Amino acid sequence: MLHTGLTVLAACFALAQCTPARRAMRTLESRAAPPSGFVHSGPASSSTVLHLRMALVPNDIAGLEEALYSVSTPSSPRYGQHLSKQEVEQFVAPKADSVAAVNSWLAEHSINATTLTPAGDWLSFSATVKQASALLDADFAVFTHEETGETFVRTLSYGIPADLSGHVELVHPTLSFSIPRRSGSAFHAVQPVQSSPVKRSAAVGDATTPAACASPTPIRPKCLQELYSIPTALAKSSSNHLGVIGYNDNSANLDDLQLFLTNFRPDLNPSTTFTLDSVDGGTNPQDPSDSTGETNFDTQYTVGLASGVPAHFIQVGEESGHDAWLDTVNYLLSQSAPPQVVTTSYAEAEDNVSQAYATKICSMYMQLGARGTSMLFASGDSGVGQGSCKQFVATFPNHCPYVTSVGATTGFAPETGATLTTGGFSTYFNVTQYQNQSVQAYLSKLGSEYSGLFNKFGRGFPDVSTQGVKVEYFWRGAEWLFTGTSVASPIFASIIALINDELITAGKSPLGFLNPWLYSTAASAFTDITSGNNPGCGTNGFPAEVGWDPVTGLGTPNYAKLRTAAGL
Question: What is the pLDDT of residues 477-491, one digit of tens each?
């Protein structure tokens, strides 16, 4: 009998026709329904090939978080002593038994995985729907985005063998539905609001408004320099870099950049440009029809405000598909020296991505922060949500605890919160220690208003703000106005890049993960914005208040005070 069984088993392996032994499964992720705007369109074809990524459990993510706060908190004796690439990877690398157990499981299903990251915490593999369904005990189906007609093959639940608990964090994309690309923007929540070409009025500016901001002149670099005390002198450090993320292969036009510098920064060399970094086949064609307001603005206001700081346009091509967040942060982590500041003007509704995926991507931003990179994200342009909402909308990834979320203001003397700013509280991430006191103070003023519409225990956002309404730039050879938090994030990124230049020139460390510093030492370096709100969901939204609020964060920056807070 033993001999016969071995013979049958050998023949089974030779023919590759054996069904893997059934293992006890446990659900790893599930959701009751697809996100709003997506409908079930029927079962997926069993022969459809899925390109999947699997995240393995890191060996010491708690240790990495402790190290991050240690090097990012001004009162810590280790403040500014950022970790090396190798030190960070030691925290996130999976244990050897995890790698062995997972690869053995995949081999049972005739699947061969490749390592996606230097630390080995992500694996990549392809499988047919039939294979993936058996592997993950899942029911893959086709889901259609009603507005665009774009289809997604996803499942609402999947599992892993129970004995792999503690080895696998998630499989992606399974429960995550990235919103399809819109015109000029890869993700909807911070899609730019553009006006027609500049219209100049003859109104007289407020006497206390900076001269360069007085009407009829639109907001330009000189206005921002006067308003926020931003220096105009050229940066000195060649090792200090500023990254701008672009999605959907939309280009940033070099002729428009030259026009911008010639007209608005005549003190800079008009040939000043950026370095193109390509992710997933991203390119930067120079046909004017390929450029967008988003990418033009982001590059013009980083090159044009962060005077002399080497800028990188990190273009993520369409090959990324629905893995744009993952591929981008993987690219940054793979660099031996990623930019010290990175700004992104794209986001999507929190519910579009699973909580496990959001947590994993945030942990990757944590890795960058520990290495000394400041990750900045525009907070979004939908107020507290569009239409009639059961709950106020939070946007990803700008509510991640390890990034700095930037809202928008408008007007002068004083500034007020822009009504479009997406701000509020995450349903995925709890309030952090660095902002707990500020958030609790705001909630006590808010009282019971909007009770049940937001998570009162959630991480609050945005963290800071700058001007974001009708800021002038060049697009397709003409002057245009741009409105949105997409405006604010590159402006604030330029300010931090200039602070970093002074720090590095003085032999000090760059700021790195900003938030513990912002909410403590640097809090007094911001002008508190106490008026404005962010309406939506049939409400007036949250009101701006004295202190931190979910419309303008801590307020708008004063460069002179920030450099003092940075120890300069």
Answer: 999 999 999 999 999
